[in-house]
Amino acid sequence: VGRCSRVRRKRREGEDGVVRSWPRNMSSTFAMRVKTILPYVGRVATTPKLSTMTLDVTGTIIQFKGQLGDIYCWAARRCGQQCPDYDNIYKGFKEAYADTCARYPCFGYNKISTKDWWRECVQASFENAGYRYTPEVFDKIFQRIYSAFGSNRAYAAFNDVIPFMRWAREQNVSLGIISNETERYGDGILPMFGFDEHLDFMIFSKNVGKEKPHPDMFQAALRAAHEDDPQRVLHIGDSYQKDYLGASRQGLRALLLDRFNTTEAKRW
Length: 268
Description:
Layout lengths: L27 H10 L14 E4 L6 E3 L3 H11 L7 H18 L10 H15 L6 H14 L6 E3 L3 H10 L3 E6 L3 H10 L8 E4 H4 L6 H10 L8 E5 L2 H10 L3 E4 L6 H5 L1
Parallel strand pairs: 1-4, 1-6, 4-5, 6-7
Antiparallel strand pairs: 2-3
Helix pairs in contact: 2-3, 2-5, 3-4
């Protein structure tokens, strides 16, 4: 297997090779899929041994909790305002997010701060949904929303990730992050779940100025890993276009992790 592909459940058992020490309590969704592919990596003489694995973030190691409207409603009510309609706020957010991304790609990169980027996006979300507030009221609402999305009120970690990271360390494989997110994930969200203790580097689109599947994201990871041979790096993510194809086109091995039985993954 020159490059890793999507791993199917039917090949979980009966494999041998480099993963005999895999933890028994590991969940099947993430770790077992990686387990089934790794014994084949490096068996071909022309395929070098892995030195590094990189991970996507949202949908791969963490997931959002509840609905967007849950947090917007909570924030508005805490400030004495009515709860916005969930459907309208979701539609308004989608429009605002696309527009803010178009005006300030990569969360503003080096033009505006992450917080200012989200301030514009959240304000437009409310206005698109038909809700307008005075500057004083909106500042209070926004601060609550921004704080919530930096806490475990908004995110949950998949319970198989930490065991997987520990196992990777036992195999002397370095771990990194490649994510189309902001530096805020590295500063607070990933450490909140203890992931930072197992990571050697983190690459975010906010800092690079490009987003996966752009080559710059994967090249930045290779530099951070001090790895000249991309075939010694395996990237794991949940997007066929951004993660699997993006990594493969730069010579990395790639694994598509489909936790939610998405249409995209089924079609592929």
